[in-house]
Amino acid sequence: MAASGSGGSRADNGYGSQQPRRRKGPGALATAYLVIYNVVMTAGWLVIAVGLVRAYLAKGSYHSLYYSIEKPLKFFQTGALLEGYLLMAKYLLGIVPSSVVLTAFQVMSRVFLTWAVTHSVKEVQTEDSVLLFVVAWTITEIIRYSFYTFSLLNHLPYLIKWARYTLFIVLYPMGVSGELLTIYAALPFVRQSGLYSISLPNKYNFSFDYYTFLILVMISYIPIFPQLYFHMLHQRRKVLSHTEEHKKSE
């Protein structure tokens, strides 16, 4: 469940970030659908950003801001599940060069953290670590979905491209740290309550320890986070250097 893109950028799914295998591009209807989806998601994460700012100004404190954006966060983060289908379509059309498996893994890990950890273990909702990954996700997703939208419209501003391939350097570790700290904070409450755990004996002769599962989730960040992070660093060098060379040639 690692490195959900939490805070930093997800494994690069950008249109035109490499020179992938070229197939026939999406038709007008598919493009319109993709544009609408990305515009809606951009707007949704902007709503979350505004909600955070308004709550902070009203309270004068950054503590427990989660409650001010809980509903839209759940809605739009869960809406990212649609992205799995979109990514597969983009991959089949040849416009997504990166690993669909890694990206799907990131989408699922965020949804998991939203519902199976933060929603289910209410005691962690006041933790500052929740705000850490929420802020990282919010900034990342506003940039990412804007990037997709403008790319589909063939009018991608350099500032958005630069932000897409630069801000993840800070946002990604920030988000991952928030996710890990939140899962860690949830462990004692999960162990005490037996949340989602199944004990023997039962008619299915099956047992499941959610506490142990969460520990395994945390361990899974170790191999996956570096892969995604260094992949994005590689993409950054490739995309931005290509842009600079293009500018010089003009």
UniProtKB/TrEMBL annotation:
A single cellular component GO annotation: endoplasmic reticulum membrane
Record-listed E.C. numbers: 4.2.1.134
Recorded topology in the membrane: Multi-pass membrane protein
Pfam families: PTPLA
Source organism, top-level taxon: Eukaryota
Top-level EC class as recorded in UniProt: lyase
Region feature Disordered, mapped onto this chain: 1-24
InterPro entries noted in UniProt: Tyr_Pase-like_PTPLA
Reaction equation(s) it catalyzes: a very-long-chain (3R)-3-hydroxyacyl-CoA = a very-long-chain (2E)-enoyl-CoA + H2O; (3R)-hydroxyhexadecanoyl-CoA = (2E)-hexadecenoyl-CoA + H2O
Similarity comment: family membership: Belongs to the very long-chain fatty acids dehydratase HACD family.
Function in brief: Catalyzes the third of the four reactions of the long-chain fatty acids elongation cycle. This endoplasmic reticulum-bound enzymatic process, allows the addition of two carbons to the chain of long- and very long-chain fatty acids/VLCFAs per cycle. This enzyme catalyzes the dehydration of the 3-hydroxyacyl-CoA intermediate into trans-2,3-enoyl-CoA, within each cycle of fatty acid elongation. Thereby, it participates to the production of VLCFAs of different chain lengths that are involved in multiple biological processes as precursors of membrane lipids and lipid mediators.
Protein name: Very-long-chain (3R)-3-hydroxyacyl-CoA dehydratase
